[in-house]
């Protein structure tokens, strides 16, 4: 079979000898190349190839053919080797030449192959767009056509194990999953009409007990991650008002258990005070908002301090600084100023720069140590607002001072990774598990963060209506620019979408098509800044980049446009809406509804 | 604005304070009194340990510091011209965390002993030359302000008749140095590896150009090696520098010394058990390599013991009976070693004693005090014994080198006495020849003179000295166990080859020597056997030996990710509720986020949120067509999703509409 294949390829070469084709072919043949004793350095071949192409392609080709006839394997290979450095292959060739790889794969895992075939039969007809799937399908075809007897044998052999595999019946599984069409379309012979959707391999019961790393590989196996194309309808997410209304009337379960957890943590308060007194800082971690816990600890600490030496019997009260690290826009300067305000008499003139302020505080504390260490309560030390250098460094050097006590909470699971050895030595933390199961009420803006997660931050300005509102108040040029942007973005989406849909019809070239399509959908998110600018200039929307920027800024200010640098460093802009909404927008814009 | 959305604020209590309740709680104060007594004891005990730690640290550094100070004082006599800047390359080892404290101690000493000004720069505050210089000048001059406060604050921004000087101009430093008469300005680059090489090069060139006016000395902290430091500088730089290398005692060696001084120290009232020691040392080796952390770990062990264990009150040196609450004595009656002891007494038919122990608090108190003292003596003896073993091994230069720490870990487990290690040591000691025994005797004699070795070393020293002086031969005296006194003899008997060992006849002197060594060894072995008991078997070992891994591990090496995953995956573990107990994976009663998380666990790396919602609704919403209920479920779903995002478990994905990417796999 290999022999015929090669001949076929040679014929091919003879007909259209373009360098590109030459390059494309050898890829598939590399395994047969291995056993050819003759060794050519790629560089030499690289030189040879073009020369041959430029000079007298035909004659050279004939020569190779001649060689081929005489010598069997040597010559075609030398031509083919060229291919190694250019992985690009044209789709058509892929198909015709693709078989050897597949054959190899098929032979390697006959069992897997037959398994898959079975599934294909029982559940198929729903198309999906994963390339691996197509590979499998091709593989199945290969089996079907190539060894008939295998086909006959498999059902008996493999059916029993399959029958044992329970169809997932828990509501969770049924509900969440890939709603699979129950139409079992027997595709006994030939190729199935639709592409069979890749079925999740039967979840063996062991999966729940797989060790963690195995589970990782299981869930990341190639082609194992098929999801449905279901989308949330626009009203299935609540907006702020609806959310707060709903969440307030929800009866929280486990109220008493959560109170009990809090009570357990409260019993440790005296211990924590003791630990603080011995020069350690405290970090609380665990699931659930710890804000109410730190609040009651603050109260406890306040009582404790107020009942002691410098305050007892006086009107002076201890000053405990509380910092909400999760609040947006917080900076190290806020923290330092408030600490300075408690540590240093207000008459002193303090430096303005955070670094010098820090230095100043530390020197002051060393020179005039306070009667007790200054307590700082910091909620969410790992919040993104406090992660950026140099904030952790400055914070660490502040709290490493013996006259400062820090009690902080950390929400994320991997927060210790934020600090290197030096920093964690400075922080000098004792860690306590303070799981509370309390909702992160003030830490998270639920609605906003879900919208962001699903790429719907456009809802922030009140959806399409909001955009219309803004656009109406903007000059004509701005509206035109926005229209161009929306149209361009839609155009890109359609191109992606078309590519996806096309695949289903062009059954002949399933695998190669899907690849570029997918790539484009990942990389072409949004419109390139330059492209948009040129379009805008062409349409006389603006005449200079400054003008263009001014128009864009207005959009940015109203959060109608988002921008990001892609992997290549090009700036891309997009309107944060989903396709349907964009379409409606485009319609309104062109219909001059605004 | 409500406080939870304020960035920072000063706490002020709500109006109705619950002070009466608080007072009530302190009213029943007998446990509190005992606690404060224990904490007072803790402070006493720890103070001693801490001073040991400090002394050890100072001692470890002092030689290096001395050298550096000599280097600094030596270089100040030079006349000011364009000389190469003296540069100390301080190879401080790979544990970056200990560099900071080292440079701090060094600075204190330099400023005390020389009239130099010492300025430390770290990489963090020196991203570029300009910032570096600003910081440098600020550090120097701000200190001056502290010294003479009469002067108008703020640096002079212009020289008398020159133009305004920018704040990163070294002229400030020059002015300041002349005014303060500092003999040298020492610039310490604490973490030279972390500096941008370009910045370093520029800095050195600049300082060199000023070196005819300002007497600079540079100190570089180096974590790798002086060679690799040199490689980072450009080729012409070395001629601007007049370098000298200083090696700092490496942190693992300091840790070893600290261990010897504290846990295996001479008269330590409270000792650490083997599990805890192993944990502390492993953590040092694998994670932190920081001397301060070692001392913190030890401190926390002391804290935990005295805070949480009522009988630990007996560690107090002055303890009148009145100060011991009955609860502490009751606790003594509960500890397992008390039970063992009582059973032992009953076996000896001392029933009256047992009755007294159980009935009379005062009797128990007296007995406990006696036993605490006796137990401490036994533990001290163990620590002495391992020192003897260690010094014998050192004198014989046996390999592998066994640290005092690992000896203590074995001894605290009661394993040392039967260990191959000890057997090997004793065997080597048995066949030691007369030229080497001197070293053993000398080192043991030192211990003996400190009262740390009960063997009468004077007797043996005398005996051996006599034997050796009588030995006119050039070869040293050998014992009968020495292999060199054996030879192999081959005989052929009935066509079979027989190998037999043959002891060479010992000379008269050798025999006398051999006897004495044997005697010495017997006595040593006897002593070790008596001393190296299993301390955990001792009565009241619970008071004297702290070996709990529980608070220590969690507090220093937390597993926050594990905790969060556990809370979400099996909330029952934390909540202990009746509704969602058992092994049933998913139930509608679980906290909503936890249900969502478990669905999340089942899915692949890309998750369709719409399907996720369907599944969630099926469980939480019960799948009913109740509109109000569905809105609630939606709210819970949204909240759960937002929480997962907050925890970093999902991220938005642009691959498909309404999909999110899974970021964490449980248990990895």
From TrEMBL, chain A:
Residues 258-434 form the Origin recognition complex subunit 2 RecA-like domain. Residues 173-183 have a biased composition (Basic residues). GO terms for molecular function: DNA replication origin binding. Belongs to the ORC2 family. Pfam families: RecA-like_ORC2, WHD_ORC2. Component of the origin recognition complex (ORC) that binds origins of replication. DNA-binding is ATP-dependent. ORC is required to assemble the pre-replication complex necessary to initiate DNA replication. GO terms for cellular component: nuclear origin of replication recognition complex. This is Origin recognition complex subunit 2. SMART domains: AT_hook (SM00384). Residues 1-115, 145-207, 501-523 are annotated as: Disordered. It is found in: Nucleus. Residues 152-161 have a biased composition (Basic and acidic residues). Its main location: nucleus. Keywords: DNA replication, Nucleus. Residues 521-581 form the Origin recognition complex subunit 2 winged-helix domain. Residues 65-77, 87-102, 509-523 have a biased composition (Polar residues).
TrEMBL record, chain B:
Keywords: DNA replication, DNA-binding, Nucleus. One of its GO terms (biological process) is DNA replication initiation. GO terms for cellular component: DNA replication preinitiation complex; nuclear origin of replication recognition complex; nuclear pre-replicative complex. It is found in: Nucleus. Residues 6-314 form the Origin recognition complex subunit 3 N-terminal domain. GO terms for molecular function: DNA replication origin binding. The keyword DNA-binding applies. InterPro entries: ORC3 (IPR020795), ORC3_N (IPR045667), ORC_WH_C (IPR040855). Residues 561-665 form the Origin recognition complex subunit 3 winged helix C-terminal domain. The keyword Protein biosynthesis does not apply. Residues 13-33, 140-163 are annotated as: Disordered. Belongs to the ORC3 family. This is Origin recognition complex subunit.
């Amino acid at each position: 079979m290999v022999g015929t294949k090669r001949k076929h390829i040679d014929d091919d070469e003879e007909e259209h000898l373009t360098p590109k084709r030459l390059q494309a072919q050898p890829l598939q043949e590399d395994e047969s190349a291995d056993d050819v004793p003759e060794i050519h350095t790629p560089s030499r071949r690289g030189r040879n190839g073009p020369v041959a192409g430029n000079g007298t392609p035909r004659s050279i080709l004939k020569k190779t053919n001649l060689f081929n006839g005489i010598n069997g394997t040597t010559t075609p290979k030398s031509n083919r080797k060229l291919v190694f450095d250019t992985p690009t292959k044209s789709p058509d060739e892929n198909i015709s030449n693709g078989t050897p790889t597949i054959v190899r794969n098929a032979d390697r895992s006959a069992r897997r192959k037959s398994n898959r075939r079975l599934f294909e039969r029982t559940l198929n007809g729903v198309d999906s767009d994963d390339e691996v799937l197509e590979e499998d399908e091709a593989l199945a075809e290969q089996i079907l056509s190539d060894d008939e007897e295998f086909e006959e044998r498999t059902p008996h052999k493999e059916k029993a194990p399959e029958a044992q595999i329970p169809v997932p019946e828990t509501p969770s599984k049924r509900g969440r999953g890939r709603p699979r069409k129950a139409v079992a379309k027997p595709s006994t012979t030939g190729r199935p009409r639709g592409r069979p959707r890749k079925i999740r391999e039967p979840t063996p019961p062991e999966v729940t007990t797989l060790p963690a790393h195995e589970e990782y590989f299981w869930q990341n196996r190639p082609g194992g991650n098929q999801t449905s194309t279901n989308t949330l309808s626009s009203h299935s997410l609540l907006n702020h008002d609806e959310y707060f209304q709903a969440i307030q009337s929800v009866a929280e379960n486990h109220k008493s258990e959560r109170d009990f957890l809090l009570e357990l943590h409260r019993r440790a308060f005296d211990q924590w005070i003791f630990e603080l007194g011995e020069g350690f800082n405290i970090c609380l971690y665990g699931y659930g908002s710890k804000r109410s816990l730190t609040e009651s600890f603050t109260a406890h600490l306040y009582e404790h301090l107020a009942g002691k030496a410098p305050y007892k019997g006086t009107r002076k009260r201890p000053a405990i600084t509380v910092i909400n690290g999760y609040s947006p826009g917080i900076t190290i300067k806020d923290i330092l100023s408030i600490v300075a305000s408690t540590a240093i008499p207000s008459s002193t003139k303090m430096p303005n720069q955070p670094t010098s302020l820090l230095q100043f505080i530390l020197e002051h504390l060393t020179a005039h140590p306070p009667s007790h260490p200054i307590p700082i309560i910091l909620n969410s030390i790992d919040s993104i607002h406090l992660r950026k250098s140099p904030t952790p460094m400055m914070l660490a050097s502040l709290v490493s001072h013996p006259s400062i006590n820090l009690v902080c909470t950390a929400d994320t699971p991997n927060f210790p990774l934020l600090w290197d050895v030096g920093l964690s030595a400075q922080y000098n933390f004792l860690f306590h598990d303070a799981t509370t199961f309390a909702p992160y009420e003030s830490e998270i803006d639920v609605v906003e963060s879900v919208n962001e997660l699903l790429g719907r931050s456009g809802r922030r300005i009140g959806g399409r209506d909001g955009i219309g509102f803004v656009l109406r108040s903007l000059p004509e040029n701005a509206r035109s620019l926005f229209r161009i942007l929306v149209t361009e973005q839609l155009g890109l989406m359609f191109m992606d979408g078309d590519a996806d849909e096309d695949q289903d019809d062009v059954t002949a070239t399933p695998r190669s098509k899907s690849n570029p399509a997918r790539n484009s959908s990942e990389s072409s998110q949004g419109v390139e800044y330059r492209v948009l600018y040129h379009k805008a200039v062409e349409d006389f929307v603006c005449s200079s980049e400054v003008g263009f920027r001014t128009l864009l800024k207005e959009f940015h200010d109203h959060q109608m446009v988002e921008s990001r640098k892609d992997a290549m460093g090009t700036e891309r802009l997009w309107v944060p809406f989903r396709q349907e909404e964009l379409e409606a927008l485009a319609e309104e814009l062109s219909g001059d509804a605004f | 604005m409500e406080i939870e959305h304020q960035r920072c604020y000063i706490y002020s209590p709500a109006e109705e304070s619950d002070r009466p309740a608080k007072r009530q709680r302190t009213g029943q104060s007998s446990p509190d009194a005992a606690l404060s007594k224990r904490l007072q004891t803790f402070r006493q005990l720890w103070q001693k340990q801490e001073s040991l730690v400090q002394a050890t640290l100072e001692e470890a550094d002092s030689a290096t510091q001395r050298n550096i100070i000599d280097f600094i004082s030596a270089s100040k006599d030079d006349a000011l011209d364009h000389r190469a800047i003296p540069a100390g390359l301080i190879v401080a080892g790979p544990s970056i965390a200990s560099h900071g404290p080292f440079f701090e101690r060094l600075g204190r000493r330099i400023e005390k002993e020389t009239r130099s000004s010492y300025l430390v720069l770290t990489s963090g505050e020196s991203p570029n030359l300009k910032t570096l210089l600003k910081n440098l000048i600020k550090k120097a001059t701000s200190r001056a302000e502290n010294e003479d406060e009469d002067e108008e604050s703020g640096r002079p921004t212009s020289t008398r008749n020159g133009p305004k000087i920018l704040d990163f101009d070294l002229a400030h430093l020059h002015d300041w140095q002349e005014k303060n008469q500092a003999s040298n300005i020492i610039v310490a680059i604490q973490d030279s590896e972390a500096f941008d090489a370009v910045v370093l090069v520029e800095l050195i060139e600049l300082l060199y150009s000023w070196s005819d006016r300002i007497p600079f000395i540079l100190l570089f902290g180096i974590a790798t090696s002086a060679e690799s430091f040199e490689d980072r500088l450009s080729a012409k730089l070395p001629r601007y520098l007049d370098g000298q290398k200083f090696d700092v005692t490496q942190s693992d060696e300091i840790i070893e010394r600290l261990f010897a001084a504290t846990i295996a120290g001479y008269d330590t009232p409270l000792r650490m058990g083997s599990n805890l020691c192993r944990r502390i040392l492993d953590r040092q080796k694998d994670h932190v390599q920081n001397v301060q952390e070692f001392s913190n770990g030890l401190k926390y062990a002391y804290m935990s013991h005295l805070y949480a264990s009522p009988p630990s009150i007996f560690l107090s040196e002055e303890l009148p009976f009145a100060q011991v609450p009955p609860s502490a004595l009751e606790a003594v009656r509960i500890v397992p070693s008390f039970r063992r002891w009582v059973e032992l007494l009953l076996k000896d038919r001392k029933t009256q004693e047992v009755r007294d122990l159980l009935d009379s608090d005062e009797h128990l108190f007296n007995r406990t005090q006696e036993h605490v003292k006796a137990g401490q003596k036994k533990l001290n003896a163990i620590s002495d014994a391992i020192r003897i073993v260690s010094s014998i091994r050192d004198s014989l230069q046996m390999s592998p080198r066994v640290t005092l720490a690992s000896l203590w870990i074995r001894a605290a487990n009661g394993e040392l006495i039967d260990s191959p290690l000890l057997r090997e040591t004793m065997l080597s000691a048995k066949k030691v020849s007369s030229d080497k025994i001197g070293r053993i005797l000398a080192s043991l004699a030192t211990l003996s003179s400190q009262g740390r070795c009960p063997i009468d070393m004077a007797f043996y020293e005398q005996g051996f000295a006599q034997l050796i002086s009588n030995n006119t031969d050039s070869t040293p005296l050998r014992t009968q166990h020495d292999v060199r006194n054996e030879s192999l003899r081959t005989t052929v008997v009935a066509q079979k080859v027989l190998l037999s060992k043959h002891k060479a006849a010992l000379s008269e002197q050798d025999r006398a020597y051999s006897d004495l060594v044997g005697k010495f060894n017997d006595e040593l072995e006897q002593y070790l056997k008596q001393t190296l008991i299993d301390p955990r078997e001792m009565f009241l070992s619970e008071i004297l030996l702290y070996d709990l891994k529980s608070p220590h591990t969690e507090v220093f090496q937390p597993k926050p990710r594990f905790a969060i995953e556990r809370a979400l995956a099996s909330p029952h573990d934390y909540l202990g509720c009746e509704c969602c107990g058992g092994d049933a994976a998913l139930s509608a009663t679980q906290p909503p986020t936890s249900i969502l998380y478990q669905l999340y666990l089942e899915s692949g790396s890309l998750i369709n949120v719409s399907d996720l919602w369907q599944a969630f609704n099926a469980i939480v919403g019960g799948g009913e067509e109740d509109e109000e209920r569905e809105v609630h479920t939606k709210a819970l779903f949204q909240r759960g999703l937002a929480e997962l995002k907050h925890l970093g478990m999902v991220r938005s994905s642009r691959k498909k509409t309404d999909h999110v990417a899974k970021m964490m796999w449980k248990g990895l």
